[in-house]
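Quick note —
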Amino acid sequence: MREMRDTLRATFGRVLGLQNRRREFRRGALDWIPEFESKILGNKRGISVYLPPGYAERPEVRYPVLYMQDGQNLFEPGRAFAGQPWRLDSAAEEVIGQRTAEPMIIVGIDHAGTGRVDEYTPTRDTMRRAGGKANDYGRMLIEELKPAIDSRYRTRPEGENTAVGGSSLGGLVSLYLGLTRPDVFSRLAAMSPSVWWDKKAILGVLDRFNAPRRPRIWLDVGGREGRDALSDVRLLRDRLMAKGWGSGDFAYHEDRRGEHSEHAWARRVGGVLEFLFPP
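Predicted structure written out below.
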């Protein structure tokens, strides 16, 4: 009887050990470009680069790339707003490990501090006396940063394999870049985008969109972000659908408990990766 108990205990131990190992997804790696200089913008910023599991072991494989705004908040607690990072590396490892998303490189672009509002907005808001440098910011991404990333890492550099994303103003500029340069960015993540900026100027950009191919768009908002935010994002959703976006190239999500916070965006970013990079 004792031998049977020992055998059962050993068997259950192996099963539980196997289950635990299955939960421990393979890890990727973080690389850094500490002071990336832009001649277009006349400033420097840090760049964080997430390399997926297997990157070092499989030198023949190339990867799609996601360019994310507000890079300070993506990976490291010590640099994230209020110490709450998205833990985007862990989210990527989970969806890659579950095979619900293909492996991707993620480039986190630090914002410019006091220059963030200007760089992340497509128009100058005369009431706020700020904004309007999104075109220059886009040029920095396309003409300076993207070539540097494509030369340093094993990317799939084509527009069809390149995504851009962010939250709040970062979501606004990501949407703007995708609508104006879909040849470069064919996959977009606009999380709680600041549709309100300059009397909802982004809606005019959408109305003028006439490219032959629509980018794939993830759009979301939190239920606790306020009535105006919900109304604005729902309006954007309806305008996108009226413009032709549908179930094949558009995903809309309302996070009922979601606030306008890093914690809320971290909670749903795994779904973003699954939509942008389906296996």
